Amino acid sequence: FGSAAARPKRCYHSGHMHIKHEAHAMEAGHACNRTFDIKNGSHCKQCQPGRIQAPYVVIPFYERDLCKLIYTLNSIAKFDRHHNFGNLILMWVSHHHMSDYAGRIAHAIHKVARTRHVRVLDYSHRLNHESVDGWQAQEAVKLKIARLIPTEFYIVLDTKNTFGRLITKKMFFTECNQGIRQGRTQIWGLPAWHVDAYKASASLLGIPVPSGGHWPTSISPVVMHTKTVLSLLDHLGENSLKICAGRLCWGFENKATEFCLYHLWAHHQANFHCIHAVNANPHMYEDWNRIVLWRYDYLPDRLGTLAHAAEAPRMPITFGAEANALIHLAPWQKRQAAIHMQNLYRRAGLYHKPKTERNLQTFVRCAIVGSLYYENVTKSGAKKLTNETHDVVDDLDSPPAKLFFSLVPAAIFATLALSACAAARRTNGWRGWLRGAAGGPRGVVASGVEHEDSVLLAC
Fold it and tell me: Given CA atoms 408, 412, 413, 417 in this order, what sign does their dihedral have?
């Protein structure tokens, strides 16, 4: 994987990019149908997949995701150089018609459509007709889309899953072409919200909650086996193209999630070890490789992880922020998180604007708050969004936040200087230290200082 010969030239589009607009869809780019073969000498079971096609990638989004979607799609175009991802399906899940944002969406897909086929599906008419909440619809379509997937597997991403380094096959598949399920711990060892999601999902499926094994939290990216998703939908009575025709949305209302449903159902199948492999390596799983700022995160841990990732030699696999993730933080914490997140986008080569206060605020509106392209909303929605945006952006510019970041360097310098002076005094006395530093007789002081007393005064 990765040789020049492995790159399907037919996937790339040069020249004018034509975007085809239909009633409830948009299309652009050339189809990319790369295959994964099993290498000679691999010790694979007979039931495990042989040759498979590169997985489709599906991403649900709505108007508040539009700006960060550009970064995520551009990261796929930049880092999937060897087409370990196949074609791309974007799902517009909003009560507003996709045509209201057609220009913004066309701008978002323009670069990635030069590397693969991109299809955008509009679910707004179904959402409005069925009166389904937007978050329930987003969870449902991640499963329902399986009926349109021609490949053996597909990968579910969210707009906050921006890639930070080269995408390789082994991030998502074994050498035997099994989809990798990242494992963390037993279900009962996961955060409480995820434990509740697994319990509700198991209840909906009518199966017991497993007591052992390594299980992931209910977050993306997730590798899904297409036929297994279809059998899950059949089990739940979801046999139509409607967003929710059976028990799916009822389950979501009672804390079940799309990913917990899939993980439990796939694990319950007799062929689980044929189609999936569990990766329990803690270094590949979460904090350092998948950075997401959640709205209700435990702040000290997450800010520490974010700060480490922003300065670490190796970029995380994916990173991003939930919409309005900074809303509950103190002003200095909002500013700190925003700067670290901006540095991640900059280091990934996806953000190139100068480090100015105005650019930081615009970046927050785009990649964190999710308000930069949020247009054509109701008056109440616009008022709520404006208040949320000001709560975050105004705090970035607040005097306490600016004072904090201006005083930190001065405080560090003063602490180091005073420590050095105190250590010197304890060791040799002031004048002995000055003569030693100068390397000469009494009265000759280094660094252009003419009198010892002036240095004493500085200390």
Answer: positive
Question: In DSSP terms, which residues pair with 20 in a beta bridge?
Answer: 27
pLDDT value at residue 374? 57
What backbone torsions phi and psi does residue 319 show, to the nearest 5 degrees? -155, 160
Instruction: Count Cβ atoms below 10 Å from residue 104 Cβ, excluding itself.
Output: 17
Between the alpha carbon of residue 46 and those of residues 41, 98, 126, 209, 279, the distances in Å are: 14, 45, 42, 29, 21
The structure's pTM equals: 0.81
386: enclosing H helix or E strand: helix 379-396
Cα-based torsion angle of the residue sequence 70, 148, 177, 36 in order, rounded to the nearest 10 degrees: -70
Higher pLDDT, 108 or 434: 108
User: Tens of pLDDT along 68-123?
Assistant: 999 999 999 999 999 999 999 999 999 999 999 999 999 999 999 999 999 999 99
Cα(198)–Cα(190) distance, integer angstroms: 10
* Close Cβ partners of 66 (under 8 Å, ≥ 6 residues apart): 101, 104, 105, 108, 372, 373, 374
Peptide bond into 221 cis (omega under 30): yes
Using pLDDT thresholds of 50, 70 and 90, give the confidence band for residue 459: very low
Inter-residue contact 115 to 11 (CB < 8 Å): yes
Q: Are strands 118-122 and 88-92 parallel, antiparallel or unpaired?
A: parallel
**β-strand pairing of 162-163 with 88-92:** unpaired
Please say if the pLDDT value at position 10 is more than 80: no
Closest to 35 in 3D by CA, of 153, 134, 130: 153
Which class for 158: exposed (0-12), middle (13-18), buried (19 or more C-beta within 10 A)?
buried
- Residue 209 CB: number of other CB atoms within 10 A? 15
Name the β-bridge partners of 92: 61, 122
Can you tell me the mean pLDDT for 384-411?
54
Digit-coded pLDDT (tens) for 181-193: 988 789 998 989 9
Contact predicate 364/324, CB 8 Å: no
pLDDT over 60 at 319, yes or no:
yes
